[in-house]
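Researcher: Re-running this chain for the archive, since the previous output was lost when a drive failed. Same request as before.
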Amino acid sequence: MSVGSGTVSFQTVRETNLGVVLRTVRELAPCSRAAVASATGLNKTTVSSLVADLMARGLVRETGRASQPRVGRPGVLLALDDSSIAAIGLEVNVDYLAVVAVDLLQRELVSRHVPFDARSAGAEACVRHIARTLGDTMADPALSGRTVVGVSVAVPALIDSPSGTVTHAPNLGWRNVPLRDRLSELLHEAGVRGVPVQVDNDANLGAVAEYRVGSFAGTADLAYLTGEIGIGAGLLAGGELLRGASGFAGEVGHLSVLPDGPECACGRRGCLETLAGIGAILREAVPDRIPDHPLSGDDVAALVEAAVERAGSGDAAAVGALERAGTWLGRGLAALINVTNPDLVVLGGYFVPMGPWLLPNCRAEAVASAFAPDAGGCRVELSSLGLSAAARGGATAMIHSLDAGLLPLPGPRDTEGPVASPAPDTA
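Model: Regenerated structure tokens:
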């Protein structure tokens, strides 16, 4: 083995071991170095060196001495340093951008909801708006002194995850948009350099958020349904995303549930989202309020509020529209349940405020139409994460990637402001 290859090998092993120790501290904290050594199988000298390195990077801190009596000197306890880094998730939807930044403990630091007509803007203008929004977020005082370790962008689309390309987003009108590379270029031009950018499907990241930080955290087999103009599903099996061979799994919004039904944005007819998507619901619930032009972000939010208000007052048209949508949604879920057998389906987005009228028919139809008795025990519940679920999932996914060694660890801490981790422009 050459000296050069030996050096690379040593550095690779050390980076791997840093990740192992970081994950172990997350799982055991507060814990001593001896406990980390015992859990990882690394010797105590190596663990002490790795802990010192993680402390210099602002990822681990000492919290005091153990109170339990033991032979010898009391151990100094370790925990994750929640003051050092930030990860940012941003969701693009037809009518808004949502941004969430979290710390190393996956606790929310910043949350923003930005009305934005992404569909009318077009891909290039939208990417530029995303870059400006990310820049504004990084400048937020809540991120002062933190290293930004990565940015995740969620899009309601078919995504080629390895390249970060939006292959097809029918509700946005995008095809083959190299979102990751273009966004990295714009951030670089704005002086934000070395921040890894990842792009994923919005439903996938919504599912990640529910699994990691939602009200049903820890449910390893679940499906998350976006409640937007389109309907997508993020699927978790054993705690891992079910992506499919080409990364396109979960497109339940394009299940054909009514032959010769309404035409869908994808060009087909009778897709689930033409009957149970938010646009379809609003056209029936508040027909007198629908404008002649395509719905903007402000339009959708105002119309959802109006539909819920009318349903709450007992308006027959609004109640009927929501109940019918719940039935169609239940039929779509039955197909999903038959194929994936989740423990839980979580309805997100605008489905949440409409939940009181959607859920009864949705649950009943899922049970009636699924093959397994009682839908295989699958529950259907509402998300507690609101319109920020995919953004929150993207941010927590970046923290998980850091733990798993899929992102470079930040270098020694810089306290001058939010800075980039020393990494390539893309990941």
